[in-house]
Automatic annotation (TrEMBL):
Organism: Ottowia beijingensis
Domain Carboxymuconolactone decarboxylase-like: 42-119
A GO MF term: peroxiredoxin activity
Domain of life, source organism: Bacteria
Protein name in UniProt: Carboxymuconolactone decarboxylase family protein
PANTHER family with a match to the protein in the record: 4-CARBOXYMUCONOLACTONE DECARBOXYLASE FAMILY PROTEIN (AFU_ORTHOLOGUE AFUA_6G11590)
Length: 185
Protein backbone atom coordinates (compact mmCIF):
# COMPACT_ATOMS: atom_id res chain seq x y z
CA UNK A 1 0.00 0.00 0.00
CA UNK A 2 1.22 3.51 -0.73
CA UNK A 3 0.39 4.65 2.80
CA UNK A 4 1.18 2.92 6.07
CA UNK A 5 -1.38 0.55 7.54
CA UNK A 6 -3.50 2.33 10.13
CA UNK A 7 -2.81 1.34 13.72
CA UNK A 8 -4.43 2.63 16.92
CA UNK A 9 -1.01 3.92 17.98
CA UNK A 10 -0.45 5.86 14.77
CA UNK A 11 -3.88 7.56 14.75
CA UNK A 12 -6.23 6.78 17.63
CA UNK A 13 -9.86 6.42 16.59
CA UNK A 14 -12.97 6.05 18.78
CA UNK A 15 -13.31 2.50 20.04
CA UNK A 16 -16.97 2.40 18.98
CA UNK A 17 -15.97 3.13 15.37
CA UNK A 18 -13.30 0.44 15.29
CA UNK A 19 -15.68 -1.98 17.01
CA UNK A 20 -18.42 -1.27 14.43
CA UNK A 21 -15.99 -1.98 11.58
CA UNK A 22 -14.75 -5.13 13.31
CA UNK A 23 -18.35 -6.29 13.78
CA UNK A 24 -19.11 -5.79 10.07
CA UNK A 25 -15.91 -7.61 9.12
CA UNK A 26 -16.37 -10.59 11.41
CA UNK A 27 -13.73 -9.53 13.93
CA UNK A 28 -10.75 -8.65 11.76
CA UNK A 29 -9.77 -5.47 9.93
CA UNK A 30 -8.95 -5.90 6.26
CA UNK A 31 -6.43 -3.82 4.33
CA UNK A 32 -9.14 -1.46 3.08
CA UNK A 33 -10.08 -0.67 6.68
CA UNK A 34 -6.41 -0.01 7.46
CA UNK A 35 -6.49 2.74 4.86
CA UNK A 36 -9.90 4.18 5.73
CA UNK A 37 -9.20 4.45 9.45
CA UNK A 38 -6.75 7.28 8.83
CA UNK A 39 -9.92 9.43 8.59
CA UNK A 40 -12.63 9.02 11.22
CA UNK A 41 -15.46 10.65 9.22
CA UNK A 42 -14.56 8.69 6.11
CA UNK A 43 -14.30 5.35 7.95
CA UNK A 44 -17.59 5.97 9.78
CA UNK A 45 -19.53 6.96 6.67
CA UNK A 46 -17.98 4.22 4.53
CA UNK A 47 -18.82 1.55 7.10
CA UNK A 48 -22.44 2.61 7.29
CA UNK A 49 -22.95 3.16 3.57
CA UNK A 50 -21.13 0.07 2.32
CA UNK A 51 -22.93 -2.09 4.87
CA UNK A 52 -26.22 -0.88 3.39
CA UNK A 53 -25.10 -1.51 -0.20
CA UNK A 54 -23.65 -4.93 0.58
CA UNK A 55 -26.20 -6.36 3.00
CA UNK A 56 -29.41 -4.36 3.07
CA UNK A 57 -30.42 -4.02 -0.57
CA UNK A 58 -32.82 -6.80 -1.57
CA UNK A 59 -31.95 -6.68 -5.28
CA UNK A 60 -30.28 -9.91 -6.42
CA UNK A 61 -26.99 -10.39 -4.52
CA UNK A 62 -25.72 -12.59 -7.37
CA UNK A 63 -26.29 -9.91 -10.00
CA UNK A 64 -24.93 -7.18 -7.70
CA UNK A 65 -21.74 -9.18 -7.15
CA UNK A 66 -21.46 -9.86 -10.89
CA UNK A 67 -21.66 -6.11 -11.51
CA UNK A 68 -19.05 -5.44 -8.80
CA UNK A 69 -16.71 -8.04 -10.29
CA UNK A 70 -17.17 -6.36 -13.68
CA UNK A 71 -16.17 -3.00 -12.20
CA UNK A 72 -13.18 -4.61 -10.48
CA UNK A 73 -11.87 -6.18 -13.67
CA UNK A 74 -12.43 -3.06 -15.76
CA UNK A 75 -10.64 -0.78 -13.28
CA UNK A 76 -7.82 -3.17 -12.38
CA UNK A 77 -8.99 -3.29 -8.76
CA UNK A 78 -7.63 -6.74 -7.98
CA UNK A 79 -8.36 -6.25 -4.29
CA UNK A 80 -12.04 -5.71 -5.09
CA UNK A 81 -12.17 -8.77 -7.34
CA UNK A 82 -10.34 -10.86 -4.72
CA UNK A 83 -13.10 -10.07 -2.20
CA UNK A 84 -16.14 -10.13 -4.48
CA UNK A 85 -15.59 -13.14 -6.74
CA UNK A 86 -16.09 -15.49 -3.74
CA UNK A 87 -19.20 -13.49 -2.78
CA UNK A 88 -20.55 -13.95 -6.32
CA UNK A 89 -20.01 -17.71 -6.04
CA UNK A 90 -21.59 -17.79 -2.56
CA UNK A 91 -24.64 -15.95 -3.96
CA UNK A 92 -25.20 -18.69 -6.55
CA UNK A 93 -22.91 -17.61 -9.37
CA UNK A 94 -20.66 -20.13 -11.07
CA UNK A 95 -16.99 -20.31 -11.90
CA UNK A 96 -18.00 -20.67 -15.55
CA UNK A 97 -19.74 -17.28 -15.32
CA UNK A 98 -16.64 -15.69 -13.75
CA UNK A 99 -14.49 -17.20 -16.52
CA UNK A 100 -16.93 -15.80 -19.09
CA UNK A 101 -16.80 -12.40 -17.40
CA UNK A 102 -13.04 -12.41 -17.72
CA UNK A 103 -13.37 -13.17 -21.44
CA UNK A 104 -15.98 -10.51 -22.19
CA UNK A 105 -14.13 -7.85 -20.19
CA UNK A 106 -11.03 -8.62 -22.24
CA UNK A 107 -13.06 -7.42 -25.23
CA UNK A 108 -15.47 -4.49 -25.21
CA UNK A 109 -18.05 -5.44 -22.59
CA UNK A 110 -19.77 -2.09 -23.14
CA UNK A 111 -21.00 -3.29 -26.53
CA UNK A 112 -21.29 -7.05 -26.05
CA UNK A 113 -21.13 -9.52 -23.20
CA UNK A 114 -22.12 -12.44 -25.38
CA UNK A 115 -20.82 -15.74 -24.03
CA UNK A 116 -22.50 -19.14 -23.85
CA UNK A 117 -21.92 -19.27 -20.08
CA UNK A 118 -23.90 -16.07 -19.49
CA UNK A 119 -27.65 -15.64 -19.62
CA UNK A 120 -29.43 -12.64 -21.09
CA UNK A 121 -29.82 -10.82 -17.77
CA UNK A 122 -26.19 -11.44 -16.81
CA UNK A 123 -25.06 -10.03 -20.15
CA UNK A 124 -27.19 -6.92 -19.63
CA UNK A 125 -25.80 -6.38 -16.11
CA UNK A 126 -22.21 -6.73 -17.35
CA UNK A 127 -22.82 -4.29 -20.20
CA UNK A 128 -24.50 -1.85 -17.80
CA UNK A 129 -21.58 -1.99 -15.36
CA UNK A 130 -19.13 -1.63 -18.25
CA UNK A 131 -20.89 1.41 -19.73
CA UNK A 132 -21.21 3.06 -16.31
CA UNK A 133 -17.53 2.38 -15.58
CA UNK A 134 -16.00 3.25 -18.94
CA UNK A 135 -18.40 5.81 -20.40
CA UNK A 136 -20.43 7.01 -17.40
CA UNK A 137 -23.33 7.52 -19.84
CA UNK A 138 -25.49 4.49 -20.55
CA UNK A 139 -27.14 3.89 -23.91
CA UNK A 140 -30.92 4.27 -23.87
CA UNK A 141 -31.39 0.90 -25.59
CA UNK A 142 -29.44 -0.86 -22.86
CA UNK A 143 -31.34 0.91 -20.09
CA UNK A 144 -34.64 0.04 -21.77
CA UNK A 145 -33.56 -3.62 -21.95
CA UNK A 146 -32.77 -3.55 -18.23
CA UNK A 147 -36.20 -2.06 -17.50
CA UNK A 148 -37.74 -5.17 -19.03
CA UNK A 149 -36.14 -7.27 -16.26
CA UNK A 150 -35.90 -4.95 -13.24
CA UNK A 151 -38.40 -2.72 -11.48
CA UNK A 152 -37.50 0.87 -10.57
CA UNK A 153 -36.22 0.01 -7.09
CA UNK A 154 -34.03 -2.76 -8.46
CA UNK A 155 -32.62 -0.43 -11.13
CA UNK A 156 -31.80 2.20 -8.52
CA UNK A 157 -30.13 -0.39 -6.26
CA UNK A 158 -28.12 -2.00 -9.06
CA UNK A 159 -27.03 1.42 -10.30
CA UNK A 160 -26.00 2.47 -6.79
CA UNK A 161 -23.97 -0.72 -6.30
CA UNK A 162 -22.11 -0.18 -9.58
CA UNK A 163 -21.48 3.50 -8.83
CA UNK A 164 -20.37 2.69 -5.29
CA UNK A 165 -17.89 0.07 -6.38
CA UNK A 166 -16.47 2.40 -9.00
CA UNK A 167 -15.69 4.71 -6.07
CA UNK A 168 -14.22 1.81 -4.08
CA UNK A 169 -12.10 0.69 -7.03
CA UNK A 170 -10.64 4.13 -7.55
CA UNK A 171 -9.79 4.43 -3.83
CA UNK A 172 -8.15 0.99 -3.79
CA UNK A 173 -6.15 1.46 -6.98
CA UNK A 174 -4.97 4.99 -6.19
CA UNK A 175 -3.71 3.96 -2.74
CA UNK A 176 -2.33 0.64 -3.94
CA UNK A 177 -4.37 -1.43 -1.50
CA UNK A 178 -3.50 -5.09 -2.06
CA UNK A 179 -5.32 -8.28 -1.04
CA UNK A 180 -4.55 -9.58 2.42
CA UNK A 181 -1.75 -12.13 2.62
CA UNK A 182 -2.98 -15.64 2.10
CA UNK A 183 -1.62 -18.46 4.27
CA UNK A 184 1.30 -20.09 2.52
CA UNK A 185 2.05 -17.15 0.22
Amino acid sequence: MRIPDWTPEAKPQPAELVDAILARRGGQLINLDKALLWSEPLARGWNTYLKAVRTELPTSPRLRELAICTVALLTGALYEYHHHAPDFLAAGGTQAELDALDRVVAGDARRSAADAALGEIEQLVIRYAAQMTRDVQVEDALFDALKAHFDTTQLVELTAAIATYNMVARFLVALGVRPEAQPGL
